[in-house]
Specification:
44% of the residues lie in helices and 0% in strands.
Length: 97
């Protein structure tokens, strides 16, 4: 999940221990520009059908945009992530996972 573009439902996030609880369902509230949308490779099908809804914004202030990790990740951060991935693989092997 560290390198891949991963989309999770609330239930999946809960099962992975990434969240503590699910408070309730709500409709998608965030909006992104069409340019931002194009940066994603693995958009879930249920979101693709709502692409016009989530990209329907007229003015995006680009001065506040933050770089995505792949574009701004330092060599040190990349090495750290690779080390974590290797350690996870070793742990899987020792646990016969």
């Amino acid at each position: 999940m560290l390198d891949a573009e991963t989309w999770l439902t609330a239930e999946e996030a809960l099962s992975f221990g990434l969240i503590d609880e699910i408070l309730g369902a709500n409709e998608i509230a965030a909006s992104i520009s069409k340019e931002q949308y194009k940066r994603f490779e693995n958009v879930p099908e249920d979101l693709k059908k709502d692409v016009d809804k989530i990209t329907k914004i007229d003015d995006v202030d680009t001065s506040e945009l933050v770089e995505t990790p792949k574009e701004s990740m330092s060599l040190e951060e990349k090495e750290k992530r690779e080390k974590i991935k290797r350690e996870c693989e070793i742990l899987k092997m020792t646990m016969n996972y």
